[in-house]
Amino acid sequence: MEQNQELKSALLEETPWVVDAQNEATQRKNIALLFDLNKMAFEKEKALKKLSDRVANDGGISWFPGGRPNDYITQYILEGIGHLKKLGVDITNELSWLTNSINYIDRSFIERYERLLQMSKEGKIKLSDDNLDYMTIHYLYTKTFFNESNNDSKLIEAKKYYLDQAKKYWKKGLYNEGMIALILNRNNEKNSALEIVKSLKERAIVNEEMGMYWKNNYGYYWYQLPIETHSLMVEAFSEISNDNLAVEQLKTWLLKNKQTNNWNTTKGTSNAIYALLLNGNKWLDADNSPNITLGNQKIDISKIQKEAGSGYFKIDYKGKEISKDMATIKIENTNPVPSWGAIYWQYFEQLDKITTFQETPLTLVKKYFIEENSPTGPKLVEINPKKELKPGDKLKVRIELKVDRAMEFIHLKDMRPSNTEPTNVLSQYKWQDGLGYYESTKDLSSNFFIEYLPKGTFVFEYPLNIVREGNCSTGIATIQCMYAPEFSSHSNGLMLKVGK
After folding, report:
1. pLDDT given for residue 256 in this prediction
2. Is residue 366 domain-shared with residue 300, that is, in the same domain?
3. Which of 214, 218, 309, 464 has the greatest count of CB atoms below 10 A from its CB?
4. Which of the four pLDDT bands, split at 50, 70 and 90, describes residue 459?
């Protein structure tokens, strides 16, 4: 969020997200510390001790110190250890409590199964119906990372019952379907697993820029989180169908999501890292620079200072250095992994001569309406460039925003004509049509700060009063993602004619 301040429509200090940027800067500095071997060893021992302290005598793990053992938290910790094993980092010999914790989730699994049998005897349910719950799916997925050591007959019976349930009732939402596919595949039910993956692929959306993704994979429960869900899909497609193209497309979506969003949780981030490291091309090993040509000029990237790790670099050209042929840009990516960049052109223009720019994922349309009385009450009539207004007229500004992907930390700034005054003078947080935002009224503009902007179409409106005569430019509305300033757009400008 701190990068490229000269390209952004608002100074970072003017936004409500200064602390987020400071936290991000601290995180970037701490990345370098991760490669200190002594610190790595110390942090590893510290983390293992913290885990050990959370394990109760019965093997259950609590969410926080002093809390009761929690089935999901215990399974989640064991799942993470399983992910490390999958990546070739086996720490099971360092965990004296591991067997005890596995036995704990086994006992909880058997208890759920026995409750089910009891309810069946009482006639409350039928065993042939769908009795596959989310905790059981997660348990079966977690257990696939560990060799079966418990030969309890009731455990074997319960597992067989739920595997049969999984083959029959696997339509449980994206995250659970991905887990069920992996469960079946790791329990020698390859054909059933392939059928689920085939169904998932048929429902996916494939886009050249965004990669492969699914609609409506959002929610509030642990099995409805978008990053975790998408990361699991990478695991499912790479392991079950060996579809390398789909895996690369899925990984592309993860990184494109990170371009305009903050992965807000350590849980989501760790799952995404697991997915990116799991399979497919070794993206982290790719270090070739792209071939970039501006007109007849080939850029020698080897002489440009790059950011460590990401390979990011920036080149500035002043006005006199720019020629017409530089509008022809050729880019050749020499790596087997995605790369992206942006080109910005900054120049001065009369505000009323600016036209709407449509070639970005963000689209803005700004309209002015005058409130007129009619036999049926006040009505809004759109203003055209020839219409002459007068002091005292009431106006309404309407801004229509369309966005083709989810983004975070969005700044929308709308300039006002100098012969008008806003009615909304108090800055406040608002909630409208499923979108939350902070509206801040300044001397020259109205600002809308949107922490999370989902894909879709949104309308912003606010009233103005005309207070003086004169011809004034309305200015333009601009919108920009603070994470990726290349995702920006603006509306058109027009003149407001106010007579006596």
Report:
1. 86
2. no
3. 464
4. very high
